[in-house]
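Deliverable D5.2: sample structural annotation.
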Amino acid sequence: MIPNRYAPLVFGFFLSMIMSAIISGVATTSAIGFTAALPSIWVEAWLSSWVIAYPSVLIVAPLARRIAGRLVAAPAPLEGHIRN
């Protein structure tokens, strides 16, 4: 198993991989349509976009978490929960 301290990097890796695959797939299909060349063109577009997406996610995710944290109410304390 990967140590927990690497969780943000692993999360960013998979998030950027999945999101860039979806977005590049939609953009490529919109640009060229469903053709025989679509898979190879899409993979090339995806790889080049993923190279940018991964470091971008690592940089932007903490900012997005801070913004979301300011917009979302803190969870209510649990009744009967003992605090230290």
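Annotation notes: The radius of gyration is 19 Å. The mean pLDDT is 92.
The annotation will be released with the project's public dataset once the embargo ends.
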